[in-house]
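Bit of a strange request maybe. I'm writing a small parser for structure token strings and I need a real example to test against, not something I typed by hand. Could someone generate the tokens for this chain?
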Amino acid sequence: MIPFNIPPYIGTELKYVTEAAENHKICGDGPFTKKCNKWLEDRFKAQKVLLTTSGTTALDMAMLLCDIHPGDEVILPSYTFSSTATSAVLAGAKLVFVDIRPDTMNIDEKKIEQAITPKTKVIMAVHYAGVACEMDTIMDIAHRHGLMVIEDAAQAVMSTYKGKALGTIGDFGCYSFHETKNYSMGEGGAIVINNEAYNEKAEILREKGTNRSKFFRGQVDKYTWVDFGDSYLPSELNAAYLWGQLEAADQINNDRLDSWNRYNSAFQKLKEAGKVDLPVVPDGCVHNGHMYYLKCKELQERTALIKFLKSRDVLAVFHYVPLHSAPAGYKFGRFDGEDRYTTSESERLVRLPMYYGLTEQDQKKVIDAVLEFYSKNDLRSVLHK
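Reply from user aminoacidic:
Good idea to test on real output. This should exercise your parser:
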């Protein structure tokens, strides 16, 4: 069976984990954590980056730094992972879901302004599949209405929008280094802080409410509890594992893009025949090969395709069930306007195997299986099996 995902592994990770262990520094904010923070800052020209325990806790930090109060509203797409929403709920906000664009599956920037009320505080821009939202429009709306913008760039490490790294455009950006992402530390993430006025508050929030970071820099002679906080520091062992992959970031990125491009080339004829839709990457956007998906005609065809691929030893999967239709979505939020695309497009989408090290031979097997499915003269016979 060709799996949907294999966590990235370069070969130097365990050497660095061993080095961290032998140095007797395995808690957070050791040398490897600092190396990773600096690499991300330098590579993405980011004002400040802090590793976190997950992409979810990076979102939690970002939302708390936005100073949300009970009753405030956060605008977000419904087509996203639950973490995008739970971060807002944790901070006490009400969720306001808006529709997505059918081309990129990102939030429809044209639907945001009509969802704004006097209670709106934050816009969440989720960069689906590592392809950027229309950030110029979103930032313009935010500036005109006095709102903050959080980029959920969990899938978008190494992606850009008009030359700017995703995660560095809004007030805060959030990355994930979960095992399903392009770069992994098992569980982990990072918050990008794009306004230095939040640096100290972020450090305090991340360090259990203490000014411990200032103490280690020699700025205070002892540290103490100064504000609300939690423990968002990943283990140094996790950071050491990630460092091996950041050192090979371009190698991993190029490998994934090669796989993405082979898929995209192989399925052009299916698109031209009107059998499937393929991913769209707008002008000005550079993606990172995080995901390759096809869009079937409808849900029944997608279900049949996934079943057929499994019979050919290929594991393909669907993605999010829209949050506004989930039990917690009803409890914590509402959908603004018409759900024209969110549900219908989500039911068409199927993700193909995509990971660092996917061999051309295995990828050809995936491609051949998809083409075999669509080569049937009468798909109805396939759909009703």
